[in-house]
Amino acid sequence: MKKKETSKTETLLFVFGISFAVFILLFVIIATVIMIVKAYRKGDTLLSLLRSTPDGESDAKDVPASEVWPVEPIKHNDKNMQENSNFN
Q1: How far apart are CA 53 and CA 40, in angstroms?
Q2: Which band of pLDDT confidence, cut at 50, 70 and 90, is reported for residue 36?
Q3: pLDDT tens per residue across span 70-79
Q4: Distance CA 77, CA 47 (A)
Q5: Distance (Å, rounded) from C-alpha 59 to C-alpha 57?
Q6: How far is Cα 12 from Cα 14, in angstroms, rounded to an integer?
Q7: Is the Cα torsion angle 18, 24, 27, 32 positive or negative in sign?
Q8: In whole angstroms, what is the distance from residue 58 CA to residue 15 CA?
Q9: Distance separating alpha carbons of residues 59 and 68, to the nearest angstrom
Q10: CB 68 within 8 Å of CB 78
Q11: Could you tell me the CA-to-CA distances from 85 to 42, 60, 68, 74, 80 in Å, in that order?
Q12: Nearest-CA neighbor of 50 among 37, 34, 36?
């Protein structure tokens, strides 16, 4: 059986691809470690980094009345079936 020979171009592309993947992986690991150290020094938990709202704000507290939708009770007919008010 004849062995396939790899060209220098294929070898260089393979080495470059592996090196690039390792570089990206190391970058992600270093960035994660830096974020964890910053959160630890600040005294917060790691989950606080995942919040989209800034510190001191919350989506569930002190919602203005204009943003709260009214809730209507569910109406049932005499057979205890829910009435569909959308089609009446």
Answers
A1: 19
A2: confident
A3: 777 777 677 7
A4: 47
A5: 7
A6: 5
A7: negative
A8: 48
A9: 12
A10: no
A11: 53, 30, 21, 10, 15
A12: 36
Which pTM value belongs to this model? Answer: 0.43
* Bridge partners of residue 82, in order along the sequence: 76
Distance CA 52, CA 38 (A): 17
Closest to 10 (Cα-Cα) out of 18, 45, 2: 18
Give the integer Cα–Cα distance in Å for 14 and 6: 11
Nearest CA among 60, 63, 61, 88 for reference residue 75: 88
Tokens of 79: 């057979």
Which residues on neighbouring strands pair with residue 76, listed in sequence order?
82
